[in-house]
Every structure is written in C-alpha cells, then in structure tokens.
Amino acid sequence: MPFVPTDPLGIDELLAPEDLAIRDTVRGWAADRVLPHIAGWYESGELPGIRELARELGALGALGMSLEGYGCAGASAVQYGLACLELEAADSGIRSLVSVQGSLAMYAIWKYGSEEQKQRWLPGMAAGDLIGCFGLTEPDVGSDPAAMRTYAKRDGTDWVLNGRKMWITNGSVAAVAVVWAQTDEGIRGFAVPTDSAGFSAPEIKHKWSLRASVTSELVMDDVRLPADAVLPGVTGLKGPLGCLSHARYGIIWGAMGAARASFEAALDYARTREQFGRPIGGFQLTQAKLADMALELHKGILLAHHLGRRMDAGTLRPEQISFGKLNNVREAIDICRTARTILGANGISLEYPVMRHATNLESVLTYEGTVEMHQLVLGKALTGLDAFR
Prior knowledge:
Elements: H1 17-33, H2 38-44, H3 50-60, H4 77-90, H5 92-112, H6 115-127, E1 132-135, E2 151-155, E3 158-169, E4 176-181, E5 188-193, E6 199-200, E7 215-225, H7 238-272, E8 274-275, E9 278-279, H8 284-313, H9 318-343, H10 354-366, H11 371-383
Parallel strand pairs: 1-4
Antiparallel strand pairs: 2-3, 3-7, 4-5, 6-7, 8-9
C-alpha cells in the first residue's frame, strides 16, 4: 500500500462504506456551500442565509444526526463525529450551528422533554425549518453553572422566567430556546418559544472569533410560560451537563477538522513556496514542523475515533470526553499556529484558512468547558480528590 500524506496511519480503513459515504457527502456540501464564501462571511462578521443553510443541513440529515426518531437520521456516533470534522474543516461557526442545534437544543428536548414537546419541536428542528439555541452561560456565570441567577417562579399553573444568558450561538435566529434556570425545586430546563412576550435576543457584535456565526444574549423579562414548557425529565445540573457531554463529543472531532485544514494548507504551501532556490518543504526545519503537526493531527483523529466507538457501545464516560476535548482543541490550536509560521506573512491573510481557524479555536478552547475545568475533571478522576472548590 502506498503512503498517503493525508491519511498516513490508514485511518480510513477503520471506517465502513456508509461512514465514508456520510463523510464525503458532508465534505462535498461544505466545499460547495461554505468554502467559496467563508472568508467574506468571516471578514464581514456575519452568516448570511443561515436559515437556508440550516434547511440544507437538515436535508443532509446533519441536524440531530445521532438522535433516533422525530425525523432525525439515527446515525452512529462515529458518523456524527465525521460530519463535525468536515464541517469544522470549513469553519468552526458552521460546526457550532450544527452542534448547538443537534447536540444541545435538540438533545435536551429529545432526552428530557415530554412527548408533546418532542412532537412540537424536533421534526421541524431536524429539517432545519426551526432553529434552536441553548441558554446556560450567563454574563457573570460561566464555569460554575450552579451559581446561575436566571430564575423561574411558579405563578399558579404558569412559570415566570427572568434572567440573562450570554454567548448563545443561534440565539437571534432561534424559534425555541432551551433555557436553564433556578427554581424553588432545583435547576430546571424550559423550552421557551422565542416569540414569547418579554423574550429578546440581541446579537453580539465586535467578535474576533467565530465571526461567521450568530452569537447572542438572551434577555428574559417576566416571560410567562405555561406549565408544559418545563422539561419534565430532569431536575438539577445533570440536565445541562448531560447535554454538554453530548456536544463536547462533537468538538473532539470538529477541532481536528480545523487542524486538518490548516495542516493541509501548510503542506501545499511548503511544496510550492520557494526560498533560496528551492521549495521550503525541502528544508529540515519545515519538515520537522510538518512531521510534528501530522503526528498530533492523526493522533487526535484516532482518539476521536476511539471515543466514538465507545459512545456507540454505550461505554463512554464524561471524564473521557474531557480527555478528548482538552487534548484535541489544545493540539489543534498549536497545529494552526505552526502552520501559520510555515505560511509566513501569507498566514495572516484570509486567502488562506489558517488564521481564521486559529482565532475560531480560541473560542472552542474555552466554550463548553475551559482548559482548567477539563484538567480538574481529569485530576479528580485520577486522584479521587475534588479540587473544584
């Protein structure tokens, strides 16, 4: 078998024909619908046509991809991971759209919602006709969600919801917001129609990362909700944390997509850029960089694949998800930064994907669990001692 620079470990041989078909379908869609436009979207700080893109992703089966029923594709965890890798190879903002829709908003309703809530929201969300968002982080509360200030209080048979959520992907275009709030009986989740009186979602501008993504604040001022808005299947932090575990899994794969795009850009550049009379890829220091990048990239893909198999087998633990998220995002950023050095000044240009991926990954590094939080999750698992407080 020949050595393949883009698959040096032969990882594709681990994939079934249907896995490869899904991967190639998503890769083709991203090449046609995202890559020709993404530099302009990033530069302008917007994601035009997001509703149309959501419908196209729904038609691909990419929304709620690993969920069963209600119009969802019922794909394997590995297949979902491969889709996340290809989407983030185009841009982290596109993968975030899919992750928040499927692994956070849809998953919360699918896992913890009533049958009526599932029937009301999930088919339209799977098709991309309805967009969802997930409200957990607050202006003053991030890594300690138990300290959230958003509060829902009973008023007769209704609930009255007040509070703020911050850095919410899809918020300004969502039809439903899954909002987590303190109540007298513990933390509860609510499926909040965004056309409810007192609800607003102003978009956050002036971002230097995830620019081709809709990011919003959620504002809830005396939002009155009927009794059936609450998600009946869970009380406490295990609800939102369970959703985050599902979403973090997609990040493990997605980060390797950003890393792959940057590595391949550097590899192509090194083969053609000439200095001192020959391609820079022929110099030892450049080859050392490329070799180290390839090592970390494909180790990360192998790790993602292993965790995907464990998820499909029902044996994946939250600590193992922290292992993957911590390693793969951190290594992906390092790959992007090294790729930038190979491209030199061209590395900061939007003509190449490297700097865009690097800045996007700065957000991916801290959302859905900062480096420090995942280190402490692993530290507790290794020592049996809780260092969070």
